Amino acid sequence: MNNQHSERLKAVRAEMGRLNIDAFIVPHEDEYFLEEVPEHNNRLKWLNGFTGTVGVAVVLKETAIIFVDGRYKVQVSEQVDEQQYYFQNLSEFEKHDWLGKALSTKSRIGLDPKLHTFAWYNEFVQACTLYQVTCVDIAKNIIDQCWKDRPHKKSKPVEILADKYHGKPNKIKRTQTGDALKASNVDCAIITSLDSISWLLNLRGRDVPCLPVFFSTAIINKNGDVICFLALENITENIISSFDCGVSFKAEQERDKYFLSLTNQVIQVDPQKVNADTMNVLRNNSNTIVESLDPISLFKAQKNVIELSGFKACHLRDASAVVNFLAWLDDNINSKVFYDEAVLSNKLESYRMKDALYQQPSFETVSASGSNAAMCHYNHKDSIPKLMTNNSIYLIDSGAHYLDGSTDVTRTVAIGKVSSEQKRMATLVLKGHISLAQMKFPYGTTGQHLDAFARQYLWQHGYDYAHGTGHGVGHYLNVHEGPQRIAKFNSEVALLPGMVVSIEPGYYRESEFGIRHENLYFIKESKALAGAEIPMLAFEVLTHVPFDQSLIDNNLLSQSEINWLNNYHQQVYTYISPLVHDTSSINWLRSATMAI
Amino acid sequence: MNNQHSERLKAVRAEMGRLNIDAFIVPHEDEYFLEEVPEHNNRLKWLNGFTGTVGVAVVLKETAIIFVDGRYKVQVSEQVDEQQYYFQNLSEFEKHDWLGKALSTKSRIGLDPKLHTFAWYNEFVQACTLYQVTCVDIAKNIIDQCWKDRPHKKSKPVEILADKYHGKPNKIKRTQTGDALKASNVDCAIITSLDSISWLLNLRGRDVPCLPVFFSTAIINKNGDVICFLALENITENIISSFDCGVSFKAEQERDKYFLSLTNQVIQVDPQKVNADTMNVLRNNSNTIVESLDPISLFKAQKNVIELSGFKACHLRDASAVVNFLAWLDDNINSKVFYDEAVLSNKLESYRMKDALYQQPSFETVSASGSNAAMCHYNHKDSIPKLMTNNSIYLIDSGAHYLDGSTDVTRTVAIGKVSSEQKRMATLVLKGHISLAQMKFPYGTTGQHLDAFARQYLWQHGYDYAHGTGHGVGHYLNVHEGPQRIAKFNSEVALLPGMVVSIEPGYYRESEFGIRHENLYFIKESKALAGAEIPMLAFEVLTHVPFDQSLIDNNLLSQSEINWLNNYHQQVYTYISPLVHDTSSINWLRSATMAI
Fold first, then answer.
1. Could you tell me how many helices (H) and strands (E) chain B has, helices first?
2. Contact at CB, A449 and B448, closer than 8 angstroms
3. Is B449 in contact with A451 (Cβ distance < 8 A)?
4. Residue B211's beta-bridge partner residues?
């Protein structure tokens, strides 16, 4: 493997020499900036084998750097050749600090403007000025030039999502979005987020693993009219004719020509979602560009009544599948039958697949035994799946897309005996989860304001976790959906009723074990309190799966936390026991949800 | 008064007509963007009588708007004529929403670019484009043209702060700052924050009420050399010659000429601190402008050992003054002797003035009886001071500058009997204070992450307060000192060891009462905990004044909160009792700090 990667580095450097550049930037993302990148666009993995969902490499003349965040610290050292790459924290890349360290002044740095958001590109060009280096747009991506056996793009037919699942006709969504543009004095908006396009048109696709979207770009006018540019062979005449004349579909090749035809328009673009290349096209005319959040994203994030009832329904069915799996798992543990991570992952999926509305996993399952769970986004498919071992902790983070909604749940399970230290850490994480889940907060509150409630008990003892606390979740769309999130940074969007978010604090001890307790919640207005002066928002739980009580140290819980846990488990039993038909599963559920 | 303000509006509108503009913006700030504005620059107060520290008016042809934040909702309606002004929330102004509502397209909006930060100005010009209105720079401020009896600028001599108080020679501070510029590849930085200049040169001034700074602008080179532009008549030859050749003082009139002489330089400017007019001068040449935080502000915010020991020392002396005052107050309350707010404020100051290092109040004292305390920044000097009344709550927020540091403390005192509802609210506020004061948090944590800990108990019951939770505090400098703060928004600077901040949650019930519990704390690394993986920061208290226990409902406190309060009060007694010499004060202190 290393030899192959070394050859590839050599080829890239040869091409760099031909183009007279001293560095070339290879991000994980393709032009759609999704976490999941289809195989044919996974340039970073081709280059050095790294399979994480966040990362970027810089190839220099003599050496190379790969930047990854805290979640991938362990993984990168296992996948990428230390002889050829320096490992750096992603923040070094984001702050552009590496420019001064890795390059001398007057260096030339190549990048493919299609693969970078305009927001980042803009900042980067400024940083280059400061470090006296030159940023060079490379029209033909160097990786693509060197990638001989590149897989073909797999494009799949676009499908209609039935009315009973989405709850709002595309005409209404388009009018609503158009009205928002009008209110902002904008003529039209470019939509480059694939999930926004899918949501707006009530269509779904299968172009990206785990994300039910299709490759496309759209433009929406303030009158609500939409043009969607896509591979026309993937959409049937029947689907096209199901739309009124306000929606037209054009070949993706016509996109730039169309953009260039826009003149004297006020065009809204999301600088975090549009690539620098498209932005260069748009700026080539007399248009005024307004940089603003994708106008669809907030509408999409606030689920309507039908979407929410779908979320509730699929979470009940999904929980019954997870409960069946956990009961089966416990039964095997008790019989000292230990499977490997792949078998476990597949077993859980097999329970979910029995559901009539099941579509696909909502992300690659993290099925991590023992020390593997210390890598928060471990993927057993990257090497030989490990066997569960007795007296360890097993972590499984998984979810599914159903036609009526999407799920995402993490449970941490004791395999045999666990140490009191492991119980202590799992309990500190649980206390954080409960603290955040119980919050009431006014309109205007963002994820940044709430994130630390999930960390506070770890912080009191000198621990933390290197990932966000929660993400938005799409309705049979991207399982990581913005614009809201709950994290230390980049979570400046206010939480609003109807938004679905995860709460998933964790703790990871390198080479030892990992813990994460994740539920999904939707946000709703809290019932009016006596004397309350302002309306308050609160989290209402969607996920109904027991937390493993053998990982909880009751002495560390306050009475209010014990009450929360007992109420939660009682509710799980009430909702899920009617859906679990196997006697041993029901018995397991009864015991797993007993009050402490 | 109203008649006078009506005449002034008329005069301003006449001038607007002459300049052919449809609107003119009158901010509270002058060109130094301080909260305290000297009388001769308080254009907003001249125009309509508003005395708050945050606000902006827009004069239109037929009407006018004044925008203020939540703190001034009550005050504005008492000070400004409703017949002539619409009252709007400041957020309307900040989001530029008013442009679309108050003005038709093609309108011309005048402003004085000296009175707006470059950051705001930039955003505003963009918003004008969007709303199709024109922003017109007015070189001669319209208010200045109309202000006939404008007071003279009162400029006072600059003074040297002795080495024993500041703890770090200006040479070292300059080198440190220059090195930071070098590390950022910058040639020089323009310093427009008056407190940064005072701190850098270890000088103090008296040009602004309550803020010991002097009017000036400085430029610091990467080699540490400084040129300070100021009114040369205010600085003695002795002071000038006390500096080495790295520091020169020039007349303020020479400033723009000097700035225009800069060519081919990379110049760092803080867009939040520089006015748009100065920025226009700087951009007139071949320079590269780098927008970044004032390079001095973070050094200044992290107090050195000498500054911290001064802070500790002055807080002990200050607390003894406050304790003497509170004992005297209680004695009078018990004897049913009620004074007015001005007498009370002066009485407290008289205790502080006995201290040899006392300089001046660190801000206008808020001495607010009963319903006046519902206005968080009430100033009894604005109307007839109110008498304390029996069975009410009195709030006093005050502080002083000493040569060795600055103080800021708020206590809320029961006058006679208080209702159980008042006790409940005061206790919810106290619980928030304690929760935040007990936090441990890792490096990188900002005020935005912590703010909600002080609000959580109010939020649980449907309440909130419309101001930030805490601000930085300067060392015998501005009592509100950035760059860090603890608030919902604009608090993105990480908290660091040595920073001094307030924790001051509150609750305000309009026309009824107001509560605020404010202490100052400094930030330090927490002692290592067994097994801790990362260093944690914590708050250590500076303020040693009892909280009024008759406002606390013990039943609402957890055991951990009771422990915090008892420890706090025990410490207050230990530290302050040796400094209070009057027997009745000692008795009062003993009783006020009894364990609950």
1. 20, 28
2. yes
3. yes
4. B208
Instruction: Answer whether A531 sits within 8 Å of B100, measured CB to CB.
Output: no
Below-70 pLDDT ranges, chain B: 1-2
CB contact under 8 A, A449 and B488: yes
Question: Which residue in chain A has the smallest CA separation from B488?
Answer: A449
Contact at CB, B532 and A456, closer than 8 angstroms: no
H or E stretch at B157: none
- Identify which of A451, A561, A440 has the alpha carbon closest to the alpha carbon of residue B456: A440
CA A383 to chain centre: 23
Q: Which helix (H) or strand (E) holds A466?
A: none
Rounded to the nearest angstrom, the minimum Cα separation between A132 and chain B is 9
Round to whole Å and give the CA distance between A592 and A328. Answer: 13
Non-local (6+) Cβ contacts of B213 within 8 A are B34, B194, B195, B197, B198, B204, B205, B207, B477, B478
Please list every residue in chain B whose beta carbon sits closer than 8 Å to the beta carbon of residue A451.
449
- Nearest residue to A321 via CA among A587, A594, A576: A576
| Crossing angle for the helix pair A194-201 and A170-183, to the nearest 10 degrees | 120
Q: What is the DSSP track for A136-152?
A: EE-SS-HHHHH-TTPPP
User: Distance between CA B247 and CA B268 in Å, rounded?
Assistant: 19
Alpha-carbon separation of residue A80 from A48, A84, A94, A366, A480 (angstroms): 6, 8, 21, 20, 26
Distance from CA of B525 to the nearest CA of A (A): 11
Q: What separation in angstroms does the CA of B270 have from each of B119, B188, B296?
A: 9, 12, 11
Interface touch B463/A534, C-beta < 8 Å: yes
> What number of H helices and E strands is found in chain A?
20, 28
- Cβ proximity of B267 and B290 under 8 Å: yes
A174: its two tokens? 């388009």
- For residue B53, what pLDDT is reported? 85
Please tell me the pTM assigned to this model.
0.93
Which tokens in the block code for residue B24? 């003119």
Of the candidates B439, B448, B462, which has its C-beta nearest A533's C-beta? Answer: B462
Determine the Cα–Cα distance for residues A416 and A422; give it in Å rounded to an integer: 13
Task: Encode pLDDT of A376-403 as tens digits.
Answer: 778 888 789 999 999 999 999 999 999 9
Confidence of residue A559 (pLDDT cuts 50, 70, 90): very high
- Cα separation, B283 vs B531, whole angstroms: 54
Flag if A462 and B529 touch (Cβ within 8 Å): yes
A462 chain-B contacts, CB cut-off 8 A:
440, 528-529, 531-536
In order, the DSSP letters of A56-90 are: EEEEESS-EEEEE-GGGHHHHHHHS-TTT-EEEEH
Cβ contact, residue pair A459, B533, below 8 Å: no
CA A64/CA A48 separation, integer angstroms: 10
Find chain B residues with C-beta within 8 A of A464's C-beta. 442, 533-534
Are β-strands A134-137 and A108-111 bridged in parallel, bridged antiparallel, or unpaired? parallel
Chain centroid, CA B265 distance in Å: 33
Most A-contacting residue of B73, B461, B508 (CB-CB within 10 A), to test interface: B461
pLDDT tens for each residue of B322-336: 999 999 999 999 999
Phi and psi torsions of A551, nearest 5°: -105, 5
Core vs surface per residue B511-545: b (16+ CB within 10 A) or e: ebbbbbbbbbbbbeebeeeeebeeebbbbeebbbb
Q: Do B529 and A266 touch (CB under 8 A)?
A: no
pLDDT digits (tens, 9 = 90+) for A419-442: 999 999 999 999 999 999 999 999
**Measured between CB atoms, which of A439, A488, A534 is closest to B462?**
A534
Nearest CA in chain B to A181: B130
From residue A221, how far is each of A199, A272, A290, B303, B592 by CA, in Å?
17, 20, 14, 55, 67
Q: Which of A288, A441, A460 sits opposite B459 (nearest CB)?
A: A441
ipTM, interface predicted TM-score of the complex: 0.91
